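My current task is to audit a protein record that another person submitted. Thanks in advance; the entry in question is below:
***
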Amino acid sequence: MSDASVTLIPDGFAAPRLPGAADPADMTTGTQRAGMAAAQSGAAGVRQLLRDYVTLTKPRIISLLLVTTWAPMVIATRGWPNGWTLLWTMLGGYLMAGGANAINMFMDRDIDAHMPRTKLRPIPSGRMSPGHVLAFGITLGVAAFAVYALLVNLLSAVLAAAGLLYYVFIYTRWLKRTSPQNIVIGGAAGAFPPLVGWAAATGEISLTSVYLFMIVFFWTPPHFWALALVKQKDYGRVGVPMAPNVWGERETMRQMLIYTLILVPLTLGPVTYGGLGPVYGVLALGLGLWFLRDVVVLMRAASFVQPAWKLYRNSLLYLALLFAAMAVDGLVARGAEVSPGVIFVQDPVASASAAGL
């Protein structure tokens, strides 16, 4: 990226631009105009526009984030959470994550145009203008904050907004194009949903919710680096310093193993003090050994592409099943007292009153 020029656009963001590439802020090419015209013409255009709005939110990614939001609510309440609270939390979570993803597409529009898996997104394909996508993302984020603050509680609103800002500014704006540690530090943005879910259900941040945050944090590097191994040529083409491009394939795999060896015992941590029970403990151990096996298979493979792709897909299933196991544990322990370990209380006076103090 040392030879990439930087174009400052009116909204104040800086987007590194490939040498000789047209400024993506100028939606003036014939292809772009044709794409936008098609998206706005007739019923087919309306359907395409709606599909593009959904695409901007990255729904497949959000579905996993919502699982990691819902499960902590079940654990925190030791049963099914209040229906309205659950509904508004899930809606707010989708809107906040969708807004973050849309802003991410706005900021990555220059490199998206040069990668096969992203070049058909709404901006590089010319169906939407960068300004429109940015406005859409900000609108979703503001709407999500309002949903949380007015219909759930202020702590969950602040945590959700912090996740969006971290993703946009720490990961996308700063680390993604400057450091192979981008997904390690910046990936913490994806670990905010467990905190949001717990805060939505209780108005608190507890030791268990922090454990859940750390689980997602340590899961993210081996998960994303598996994809980076497969797509390293794409990242190299646009100058994004993902781990395989900087450290090499073998070192990246070694780092994946290290993070997995930390992750597996970490998932068992809440069992040691009663934050989660034996049902979860057994399931978490089995899932962890399965995940570890896939990492070892990748390291031993003569050709890494297929094992890396399999690991990437299985890692998504692993996290979903792990949090589902937490929810099952919470439902099995229905009505049981939640283990202590409160770190932050949104309203200490109200909490003390509720406890009869």
Summary: Confidence is low (pLDDT under 50) at residues 1-34, 349-357. The longest strand covers residues 5-8. The chain has 16 helices and four strands.
